[in-house]
């Protein structure tokens, strides 16, 4: 029932008496619904549940790919990468969740991608890795609320790594760059509630 309600919410954005972004509501974060929009208009995909499960399946593949890349980055071993990918991909709970419209698989995917680029950053110190990491985290903050805490947890890690590399100036620039991107989703959701429902904190007290 929970999965079906999510599909209905996504469909109402396009097909209802009053279509529009206001149909996203305020209870659940919007990105999972937005990812369903290319499919949810199709009656067959909607009735069969595929409109909701296709984005989850794509997220499942991305998570498996990036857990492979993470293990290979840490161990320099393709075998370790395949073992890590298999451990994730063959998890019975994840195999079930990726076939539904629930948000857990997409959230996990954003988490794995963010971790990979954070680890890559510790090796390259390339600002492009901060951008990729922050964008993955920003996506996660629009999927599940616990990812807002995850976004905050990266700040001291980045600050410490940059400080050890080149001191205060690099730490400041990294934090600004990361913060502008990683928290854009949080700010956007608060503004959405302020504009549509005239209460920026409505989601937290609904």
Structure summary, number of beta strands: 0
Helix content: over 70%
SSE series: HHHHHHHHHHHH
Percent in strands: under 5%
Mean residue pLDDT: 93
State the low-pLDDT regions, or none.
none
Largest sheet entry: none
- The total count of helices amounts to 12
Classification by helices and strands = mainly alpha
| Span between termini | 20 Å
Rounded to an integer, what's the Rg over CA atoms? 19 Å
* Quaternary status: single chain
Question: Outline, from the CA principal axes?
Answer: flat
What's the structural blueprint in terms of helices and strands?
Blueprint: H1 2-14, H2 31-40, H3 43-48, H4 50-75, H5 78-89, H6 92-97, H7 104-124, H8 127-141, H9 146-166, H10 168-182, H11 184-197, H12 202-205
Helix pairs in contact: 1-2, 2-4, 4-5, 4-7, 7-8, 8-9, 8-10, 9-10
Tags for this model:
mainly alpha; 79% helix; 206 residues; 0% strand
TL;DR of this structure?
This protein has 206 residues and is mainly alpha-helical.
């Amino acid at each position: 029932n929970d999965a079906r309600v999510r599909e209905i919410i996504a469909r109402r954005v396009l097909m209802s008496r009053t279509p529009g972004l206001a149909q996203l509501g305020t209870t659940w974060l919007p990105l999972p619904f937005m990812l369903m929009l290319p499919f949810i208009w199709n009656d067959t995909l909607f009735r069969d549940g595929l409109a909701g499960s296709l984005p989850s399946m794509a997220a499942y593949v991305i998570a498996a790919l990036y857990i492979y890349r993470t293990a290979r980055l840490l161990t320099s071993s393709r075998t370790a990468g395949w073992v890590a990918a298999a451990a994730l991909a063959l998890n019975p709970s994840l195999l079930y969740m990726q076939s539904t419209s629930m948000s857990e698989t997409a959230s996990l995917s954003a988490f794995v991608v963010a971790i990979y680029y954070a680890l890559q950053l510790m090796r390259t110190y390339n600002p492009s890795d901060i951008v990729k990491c922050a964008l993955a985290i920003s996506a996660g903050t629009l999927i599940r609320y616990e990812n807002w805490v995850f976004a905050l947890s990266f700040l001291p890690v980045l600050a410490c790594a940059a400080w050890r590399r080149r001191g205060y100036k690099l730490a400041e620039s990294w934090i600004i760059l990361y913060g502008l991107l990683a928290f854009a989703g949080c700010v956007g959701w608060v503004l959405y509630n302020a504009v549509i429902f005239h209460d920026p904190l409505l989601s937290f007290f609904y």
